[in-house]
Every structure is written in structure tokens, then in C-alpha cells.
Design goal:
The protein has 399 residues and is of the alpha+beta class. Helix content is 62%, strand content 16%. The protein has a six-stranded antiparallel β-sheet. A hairpin with a 5-residue loop joins strand 3 and strand 4. Helix 3 runs antiparallel to helix 5, helix 3 packs parallel to helix 11 and helix 3 crosses helix 12.
Length: 399
Amino acid sequence: MKVVERYIMRRTTAMFLAALVWTLAIVWTTQVLAKIDLVTDSGQSALTFFEVAALIIPSIIPIVVPFALVVAVAQTLSAMNTDSELAVINAAGASRWTIARPILLLALAASVFSFAVDNGVDPYARQKNRQLVAASRADLLSLIIQEGTFRRIDDGLFLQIGERLPDNRLGGIFVADSREEGANLTYYAKTGSIVEKGDEKVLMMNDGVINRKSVTGDLSVIRFTSYAFDLSAFMSAANEITLLPKDRTTPYLLNPDPNDRMYQRQPGSYTAELNQRFSEWSYSLVFALIALAVAGDARSHREARIHPLITAIAIALFVRWLGFFAAGKADKVWYYAYMVYAVPIVASAVSIWFIVSSRSMELPTAWADWMTNLAGRASEGWTALKLWFARRGTSGQGA
């Protein structure tokens, strides 16, 4: 590898790692916030929460890596063009392949990494994640006997234990049940206990009342000496782990179990997931080619055009959207499976044509003029706003 190629490789790799860390951190944070109820609702420790949060990372790596790569390549080449380095390289007689080769090597390494994570690490991480979530929800007994706190047992079902009494008895039991459409049930009992009969678990409530409120506002009150509230359904539902096609390993998707209930209901989803895994790795190469087609040539600073980084990201987003659209339809419409592979192939072919023909891939000129005018108006508005605040501050001091 030539000195120039090592220089480009070093700069692009550093920018890629920086963009990957920040992009991965942002996307990971948004995904982790959706899991915060594991601690707040299920009473699990922070260690379990962070373990679940760590297992989310493999699922977002294949999506984030191509975008980090297109940002790194476009920004590096744009900075080199601004510093006239691309012009010097062209003037020295180097071909465009000198610039493209180190970037394509980095893109190939990113593609291999994405393929390994998507097909080797992510399925096992998803299965472990589901096991942890199921285990946390299955620990129902330790969940409901916590004193003085409301706990959500199921959608529309909440339970509170006032205190724990000797002999494994419970005091001050409150249950709010709104699962039945058109009626809200409220149970209150002075004492109670959890009775286990084999695999069945029943909450026995003693000396209490049931308040039933209908949609029309009618209220009925029923007193009881003892009442059994079955918890077995929630325990079995919590213990059951349902694995979706995304959670299955690639060898399983290639040869699924015919007795798998999910496979019997949605066989097309297994094929669609397999096609997505075999095509998703290629987007790192596709996005690198797009960035090369957009920012890989030396351009004059006086040319009016959108910043190459914005152009590359906009085109990459459109291509990735097409890929997601095709993957989402492939489980129901068979010919969309071909589109899953056609999107990266066509995008790569178009980018290679721009690179080989020494053309620059750009957004339409009308878009460039519109965005330039929009940026100018925004700058003028911001300047006027700062002047207005400055005048207000001066007049206030004078008063």
C-alpha cells in the first residue's frame, strides 16, 4: 500500500471509529430507554438492567456501521478537497483508484464485521435478552410481596401489598383490574396469603370487598369472607419464551423445525429474515461507494453545491429506506425478496458508474439552490435575532 493510501486509510479509520462510537451511543441510548420499565415495573436490580442493555448492542451494530462509514468517508474526502490534497494527488498523476482502494478495504472489513455480528452474535444475544426479561417477569412472588408499592402484573392489572405478616401472611391487599372491557374491578382484603397447589399459585384474600364499576357509572359492592385470585396464568405466560425469526440463528433459519408454531403461522417471515441477514452486510460497501461517488473527486471551492456530507447521507438514507421497505414486504409478497438484494446491487452499480466515468454524484441543482437559500435565510434570521436581543439588553440597562 502506498504512502498516500496509508494516509487516507488512517484518516478514514479514525473518523469512522469516532462516528461509530457516537452514533452507536445515541442509538443505544434510545433503545435502552425503552427497557427502563424492567427496573421500575419488575423490581429488578440495576445489574440485570445493564446486562439487558448490553445485549441490545449487537442488534444495532449492523444498522449503525454503514452510516458511520458514509459519514467518515464523505467527511474525510471533503476535508482533503478543502485542503487541496485531492487536487495535489490528481496533479501527481495518481488514479482515482489510489483514493478508492483504502476506503474499499475499510468498507470490506466493516462488511465482514457486520456479517459476523448479524449472523453469529446477534441471534444469541437476542435469545439471552428474552431469557433475562422472562426470568425477571417470572419472579412474580418476590415481586408482589414487596410492601407499600404498586406493581403491574399484567396490562390493566395492578397489585399492592400493605405489609407482610407472620406465617407468610399478607396484610392490606389491594388489586385493581381493568382488563375486562366495560368494567373496572377493585379488590381490597384485610389479610391473605399465596397458596401453591402443584404448579398452580393462588392469591387467597380474606375479609374484603369487591367494587365493580361499569361504563355507565353503576357501582356495585360485594363483600366476601374469602376469595381466590388465580395467578397461574400470569406465571405460565411469564415463563414462556417466544422466539421470533429475528431471535433464531442462521442455521435454524436455513432449516427451521416444522413443528415450530411461529414457523407454521408465518413461514414467509423466516425466509424474509434470512434474506435480510444475507443482504444487510453489503450496505457498508454500498455506502462507501456512494461517498466515493459524491466526494471522491477534486472540486473547486467556488462551485455552488451542497456539502458532500449532506449529499452522501441523503442518498444513503434513501437507499437504506428502500432496503427496509423491501425487507418489510418480503414476508408477505414473494417478489420483494428479489428487491432486498436488488437495492444494494443497483445502488452499487450506479455509484461505480459515477466513479469510473469521473462524474460526481450530486443532488439536483434546484435542491442545492433551495438549500443554499434556506441556509442564507436562516443565517439572516439568526443575525437579526441576535441584534434584537442585543438592543433589548442595551435598552434595559439604560432604563
